[in-house]
Amino acid sequence: MNAPVATELFFPSPAVSAFQLGPLTIRFYALAILAGILVGVWLTARRLRFRGGTTSQTLDIIAWAVPFGIVGGRLYHVITDNQLYFGPGRDPSGAFRIWEGGLGIWGAVALGLVGALIGARRAGVPFPAFVDAAAPGLLLAQGLGRWGNWFNNELYGEPTDLPWKLQIHAMNPATGQALTAPDGTPEILGYFQPTFLYESLWCLAAASLLMFLDRRYTLGAGSVFALYIVFYTGGRFVFELMRSDPANLILGLRVNTWVSGLLFLAGLALFQRLRTRPRSAVPHVPVLRQDSEAPGKGIPA
User: Fold this and answer.
1) What's the whole-model pTM score?
2) 15, 174, 251, 276: which has the fewest Cβ within 10 Å?
3) What are the structural domain ranges in the chain?
């Protein structure tokens, strides 16, 4: 009687990262980013209402923050991984093909904050109140967005034999399909640490902890966002040390490792400075409605 064959455990990756919808190519990476944005906006609007704001104000600010963030994220990626687009045998136009993947969180946050500042001023919302409301939602958006990297078969660590090892295919970014082996099956590059998954779970846990601390303690204006910086960069520093995909190095460490470490220290310093300040809230602005007995005049609603 033949002995049963042991089944190898691993975390699979999709062999397809896009599909056709008529003339359009829909990228799962873009859908993951979009899902993250929608969940982040929902949570931010909910939290801003508790601070005296409105959903309309949240949407007005997000309308500025998101486009700025996408541009900033792409700029950071292209600058820090410029060898992917410039040099012998490279296609510079790929720098504009954002649907193929590649957004740097630091650039996204930096320019996103500029857009949020513009939007907050136009909406009459104190900037610290908005960023404190948005911090957990930003973590959720990042956690969900990381699943776009799963579809792209990227953001993995060193080779491993752990039961939750990540199977990585050789992908054609232009078609969104895995390359095939001679027998017609998707070509497998190997099995690696699923650092995208670690970061996604860390973001979800950090968002939960941030909301708990915000409810449990009276944190000063801007200090919730400072804790976001501390929590995210603390985890990101560790995950960057685990990654094995190609990246530019400074003194033997990945660029994002240095950035994470420096921002972690900056976030700690910022939190210490802001934690005792009064909590920021959105000032109440009376809504006027038309008085039927006096056309053209309004009374507080």
Assistant:
1) 0.84
2) 251
3) 29-158+193-300
